[in-house]
Amino acid sequence: MFTSGDYAAAARVGLAGHEPGLLALAARALLTQAVVVGGNIEDLTAQAIGACQNALAIDPNHVEARLQWAVALSLIGARQSRLEALRSGIAQKGRGLVHEALTIDPRNPWAWALDGAWHFEVRRRGGPLGARLLGASLAKGRRSFQNAREARGAIDPVMYVQEAYALLGSDDRGDQDQARVLLEAALARAPADSLAIVMQSRAREMLGHLAKDEVGLARARFAKADPDLRP
Q: CA-CA distance, 207 to 181, in Å (whole number)?
């Protein structure tokens, strides 16, 4: 159901399963529905967090539940002002969950990808001061993204497009060039599911904007999808 794009059905099945893996799948489906299909983000993220908490109550070491919880927090934080995000501590909470996941599974590619996205987003929204306060840096983010690609091995269109989106938030020309490379690589891989098809469609449009040096428009084209989501 998830691979075919029926995220609502996948969420229903997962929530009814009362098993950590199914609950984490439900959270992933709810979050993907929120940003790819649309819906009430507040309600969907709340449901997703609840599913993750229930999964961790059953299995305190469940990696996927931590990662989906972190994704939900990133969606909530994106809707907050900079001051609200700083006061709520949502960025620190999200990164804490990712670090816990990496402690349990140091080679998890999606945990590294989330960590990389965290560094770039904190630097983009908070500027140099915000990055210093929270310990974020583009150099650390690049290393985390590299770790993600190495751990994943094969080209993953969803992961690559999401990384490209994060890199385009940087003013560094090298990051923007790397984003182009990733988008082109993502298009060279056959899509494995409906989400990969969506990401590849956005990759084509993003490359079209980048060909005209429209970096802001390339990022805006991806705004309906969150960089931390995955199939």
A: 10
CATH code: domain of residue 86 = 1.25.40.10
116/111 Cα distance (integer angstroms):
9
pTM over 0.85: yes
The backbone torsions φ and ψ at residue 190, rounded to the nearest 5 degrees and listed phi first, read: -65, 130
Is residue 78 situated within a structural domain? Answer: yes
Virtual torsion, Cα 58, 61, 62, 68, nearest 10 deg = 110
- Side-chain-side CA neighbours of 78 within 13 Å: the count stands at 19
| pLDDT per residue of the chain (231 residues) written in tens, 0 to 9 | 888 888 999 999 999 988 999 999 999 999 999 988 888 899 999 999 999 999 999 999 999 999 999 999 999 998 888 889 888 999 999 999 999 999 999 999 999 999 999 999 999 999 999 999 999 999 999 999 999 999 999 889 999 999 999 999 999 999 999 999 999 999 999 999 999 999 999 999 999 999 998 888 888 766 544 444 443
